[in-house]
Structure formats: C-alpha cells, structure tokens
Design goal:
The complex is a heterodimer of chains A (about 230) and B (about 290). With about 230 residues, chain A is mainly β. Chain A has helices spanning about 1-20, 220-230; strands at about 30-40, 40-45, 60-65, 75-80, 90-95, 105-115, 120-125, 135-140, 140-145, 155-165, 170-180, 190, 195-200, 205-210, 210-215. In chain A, strand 3 (about 60-65) and strand 4 form a beta hairpin. The longest helix of chain A has 20 residues, at about 1-20. Helix content of chain B is about 30%, strand content about 25%. Chain B has helices at about 1-5, 10-45, 80-100, 140-150, 185-205; strands at about 50-60, 65-70, 105-110, 115-125, 160-170, 170-185, 220-225, 230-235, 240-245. In chain B, the strands form two sheets. A five-stranded mixed sheet of chain B has the order 5-6-7-8-9, with helices on both faces. In chain B, strands 1-2-3-4 form a four-stranded mixed sheet, covered by helices on one side. In chain B, strand 1 (about 50-60) and strand 2 form a beta hairpin. In chain B, helix 2 (about 10-45) runs antiparallel to helix 3 (about 80-100). Chain B is elongated and about 90 Å long. Classes of the chains: A mainly beta (about 230), B alpha+beta (about 290). At the A-B interface, strand 1, strand 2, strand 3, strand 4 and strand 5 of A face helix 3, strand 4, helix 5 and strand 9 of B.
Chain lengths: ~230, ~290
C-alpha cells in the first residue's frame, strides 16, 4: 500500500515537473571545460549520445566549441531538437552587434543530419588575411570563413554542452582531444587547463582536461525511480 | 599518298593536334558555361530584388564566384534587409551548386552606401550530404496556402497582422515564400509565445504539402512590440539549412545555441561520481590524418 502511494505521489511530482517546465524561457544550462588565455582557435572531437536522448517540449540540446561571447561569437558543434529523428552538425556566427541586436547578423547553418554515437571534429580558427577571418571546419573540411566578426585573440575558447528550456532534458556528450591554438601561428595544443564548470543538474565526468563527458541522467531515472525504489 | 599520311610521326602529330583541339574545345565550353552561370546568377538575384552590384568569377579552376551586394547603410553596421538579401544570395548560390554548376566556393561581400566593405564571408561547397533540390510536381496555390497556414501557426500572445504567401519569383508556381508579421504587447508576452510560434512556423516550411497546394522553402517572420520596435526578425531557408535571427535585448534566445552571456564562473569542485562509466559506450575517433 505504502509503495502504491509513493508511486502515485512520484507520478504527480513527475508530471508537475514536466508540465511546469515545458515553456520555461531564457533558460540555458551549460557543462564542460574552458580555455582561458589568448585564443586563436580550437577544435574538439565531439560525440553525439549513443542512443536518442529524451527532450521535454520545445527543447534543444547542443555540444559545441565556441569563442566566448565578446559579445560576438563563432561556434561549431552538434545540435538536437526533440521534434527531429536525428541530431545535426552546424556552425554559427553572431556578429554585427550581437549584444545590442539592433541589426544582428546571426546565422545558423545546419550542415547535415548525423547519427547517434557519431564523432566529428569541430574546429574554429582565426585566419590572417587581407581581412581577418574566423573559419569553421567540420571533420577536416573547411566550410566557411567570415570577416569582421571578432578581433583575435579571444579571452576564452569554450567546449561545452548546452541544454535549453528544461533542466529535465537528458544530456550525454563526449568531448575528446580538445585542443587550443593560443598564438597566431595556429599551433594547436591539447587543452591542459581544468576550468571545468557545470550548472546543476548537468555535470561532467573528467578523464583529462581535454577529454570529458557531459551528462544528465534520465529525468525518469533521476526523479521517479529513486522515489519508487524507497 | 596514303602511306605518307599515315606515317607514324604524322599520326602522332595528328593525335596531339586532335587532343589539343579537344582540350581547347572543352575549355571553351567550360568557360562559356561558367560565364553563363555567373550572368544567370546575377539575373536571378535581380529578379529576387537583391541589390547585387557585381557577380564576378574570381577563379575558373577551381570555380569560384565573388558576389557584391549593395547595402543602404551609411555606417559599418548592416541592416536586417541586408541579412535577408545575403540569405537569398546564398540560397541561389547553393542551389546553383546543387543543380549542376560545379562551384567550389563563393564569397559574398557587402558594401555600404559609401562603398566601404562592411561584411564578407566565403563558403566552401564540398559539404557532405547535400541533396539536389527537387521541385515539387504539384502547382501551388497561394490563397489556399494562406488559409492552411492560419490553422497551423501557434501565435500564442502574438497578434498576427499579416500572413502572406507569394509565388517564388524564380521557381514560379512550384515554390512559395512566406512572410508573417505580428505584434506583441511586450517582451514578457513575446517570451511566453516565441518558442511555440517559431516551432510552428518552421513546421509549416519544412515539407511540401500537396493537400494544401503548398511548398514553402523560404520564410520570414517579423514581430514587433506595440510601439513598433523590433522583437524578432527571423528568416529560414529550408533548402540550404540556413537560419537568420535578429532579436531585441531581453527577448528569449532559447531557440539557437549560444555561449554563456558572461565569463564562466570559477571552477567548482570536480564532479566525477554517480554516473556510469561511459568509456565503452561511445566510439573513439582515431584521426586518419593530421590536420593541416
């Protein structure tokens, strides 16, 4: 009897959590590691979750490598929106007044659908030229270069996972071989700084500063099962 | 006579000449095709109303195009209309590539009213997984599409003032462009409604709908507040996977990835417990070559 009451109670709590989190706005949670210093570029081998992850409502999950928002930024990684079958690889630029947004040019370019459990190397790098450019490569293939974005060096290169709209969303992403170019000659070195951070309920599991997993257990496992198992 | 003509030396000479003429012919055809492609592109952009000031072949082998757009801006900042024009330009360039113009890369430049370059980017087109565009077989109907869209959009607290479907100036009766305009009382109301609205807006555009005589690859949504100030200007090109956003400060940005607004906080204590070891669950990438 006690077990049934606990079960009903936990179901009510669980449904309440879901319902109250569907339309949360302006909310993002982050987890991962960050290089601090003079950044001219970086890359990371980022893996999508091995199996499809559960997202609540109109939610999105991303794992990427990015310059710090200065406020402009350059970014590449994988993303997943719950209403699609598969995640996708993308790159993104935000400039032309990314903060005051009076006339922002914020482009999100989806490249292709990718598989669950697939690893790709996402790279952002500054490239000197007649006009400075920030270039994007995915799996060694250079896709685009944009000028007038950010004057290098940037103070941070971030390799993070990002969850939007509900903290009940699942997350799992492997970041490996995270490497940074800290000089204009673009010599990439394995990230050795451990500036990890994670916003609860998301966390990271560190093998090394350049290799870590960002994750969150299933909301069912985290919310419902512990109560049921009492 | 015949034996002289077919002497080995002359045969080789004739062969070389033939190969040379063939190569010249091939190059002439290729150059002509490239010239044709660039002038066709300029013509298509003008028909779309894009203020293109120059389409130039910057390299023939590999084939590279340089497109210059004219902005009305007098400063170094460009406007949302400039962004929309850049999206249309990329739409044409990428579709040209998918439809047989073997374009290796293109550069889009934007110059302001004073002739100063204010934006420039280069895209490389050896991307994987891009399907050739396939025009739909049915004839679209703008009025029917508008009626259908009214039932599909979820505006929430946004008051929609315009739902306009027009035939694509280039693709004609086989593709459409959607423009939606609306207003909302304030940013809080916008934040409560934008996620659902944008999701429904994208759903309308994602696929051909023969039952509604509707196929809309290109769409734009413009939302203002009650004073007419911009809340959101959003554009999407479903055929190339491009999305553009311009949002007002304080409006939710939870529909695109972005880095944290501030520096990341100092490192908390390392959290490494309580999860299953994932090491066997994911494939390990073994780079097959060194990155240049």
């Amino acid at each position: 009897m006690k077990r049934i009451i606990y079960g009903i109670l936990s179901l009510v709590v669980f449904i309440f959590l879901i319902v109250t989190n569907v339309e949360i706005t302006s909310a993002s949670w982050y987890a991962g590691n960050v290089f601090k210093g003079s950044g001219y570029g970086g890359y990371a081998d980022i893996t999508t979750p091995v199996t499809p992850i559960y997202l609540i409502g109109k939610s999105h999950v991303y794992s990427w490598i990015s310059t710090i928002a200065t406020p402009d930024w350059v970014q590449a990684g994988w993303g997943y929106e719950g209403n699609t079958d598969k995640p996708y690889s993308y790159y993104e630029y935000c400039y032309n007044g990314c903060k005051d947004l009076s006339a922002t040019y914020h482009i999100l370019q989806k490249i292709e659908n990718i598989n669950w459990g697939q690893t790709k190397r996402y790279m952002i790098k500054w490239q000197a030229g007649s006009t400075d450019m920030w270039c994007i490569s995915i799996d060694y293939s250079q896709l685009a270069c944009y000028s007038y974005v950010i004057v290098p060096p940037v103070s941070e290169i971030q390799a993070l996972s990002e969850v939007q709209n509900s903290y009940l969303n699942e997350l799992w992403s492997n970041h490996d071989n995270v490497s940074i170019a800290s000089s204009a000659n673009l010599t990439f070195q394995t990230l050795s700084q451990a500036n990890f951070f994670a916003q609860s309920p998301y966390a990271y599991f560190m093998y090394s500063p350049s290799h870590y997993v960002t994750y969150r257990s299933s909301p069912i496992r985290k919310t419902l099962l512990p109560i049921l198992s009492r | 006579m015949a034996s002289t003509f077919f002497s080995p030396r002359k045969r080789i000479f004739a062969l070389v000449i033939a190969v040379f003429l063939l190569a010249i012919g091939f190059l002439a055809v290729k150059v002509s095709a490239q010239d044709q492609s660039s002038s066709t592109l300029a013509d298509r952009l003008k028909r779309r109303g894009v203020p293109v000031s120059e389409v130039k072949i910057s390299s023939r082998l590999p084939f590279e195009l340089n497109v210059t757009l004219q902005s009305k801006s007098a400063t170094t900042a460009f406007t949302n209309e400039d962004s929309w024009n850049a999206l249309l330009t990329e739409h044409e360039l990428r579709l040209a590539n998918q439809n047989g113009v073997k374009l290796n890369s293109y550069t889009v430049r934007m110059v302001n009213a004073n002739g100063k370059e204010i934006a420039k980017h280069q895209s490389f087109l050896d991307e994987p997984g891009k399907p050739a565009s396939t025009p739909v077989s049915f004839v679209v109907d703008n009025a029917r599409a508008e009626e259908k869209i009214k039932t599909l959009l979820q505006p929430g607290e946004i008051r929609l003032t315009l739902i306009q479907v027009s035939s694509d100036a280039i693709e004609g009766k086989n593709a459409q462009i959607l423009l939606v305009q609306g207003s909302v009382t304030d940013k809080d109301a916008a934040n409560r409604s934008l996620l659902s609205f944008l999701d429904s807006f994208k759903d309308v555009l994602n696929k051909p709908m023969p039952e509604a005589a509707m196929y809309i690859p290109l769409g734009r949504a413009r939302i203002t507040d009650s004073q007419g100030q911009q809340i959101l200007d959003y554009a999407i090109d479903c055929q190339t996977g491009t999305e553009l956003f311009s949002i007002a400060p304080g409006v939710t940005n939870s529909f695109f990835p972005h880095p944290p607004a501030m520096d990341v906080p100092p490192s908390p204590a390392l959290e490494t417990t309580g999860i299953p070891q994932p090491s066997s669950a994911y494939p390990v990438l073994t780079p097959t070559r060194i990155y240049p």
